[in-house]
Amino acid sequence: MSERRPTYYVEGSVVRKQAALPQREYDPRRQTRRVPRPAAKPQADVRLKTRADKALAFNLRYTVFVVFSAVIMLGACIMMLNMEMQISDRQDNIVALENKIEEITNENDAKRVELENMYSLDQIRNIAMNDMGMVYAKKGQIIYYDSANEDYVKQHMDVPETK
pTM for this one? Predict the structure, then answer.
């Protein structure tokens, strides 16, 4: 009766294939079974191995490119952080200037109110009439005329009297 050899499955990309285990040869000197060495590797395997070795090998151009890219990226990050700091400083400066403007505006408003309340219109009229001798205009002293420019009037000569 023939001896049955054990088999196992080799996973492939398309179909499962049944392959036999290697046959062990009997060596009477050792009293052990010896597994024959596999045959020499095909040429395709050697080419694949050399390609893999080249891919893993040190490539100076690629390394220089990666280092250059990293330096560029680091420089861009530093510039971005610097710009963000400048923007933050300018925003703080703007807030400080706005606070200063608000403070000055409040001071101006307080001074305006103080000046408005310093003298009343009655006090100004009394000082003008009693101390400086001013009088109200009489009827006929006020002359009305039309002007092309309403912003200001320049007087080049005396205003003629009307009858």
Answer: 0.40
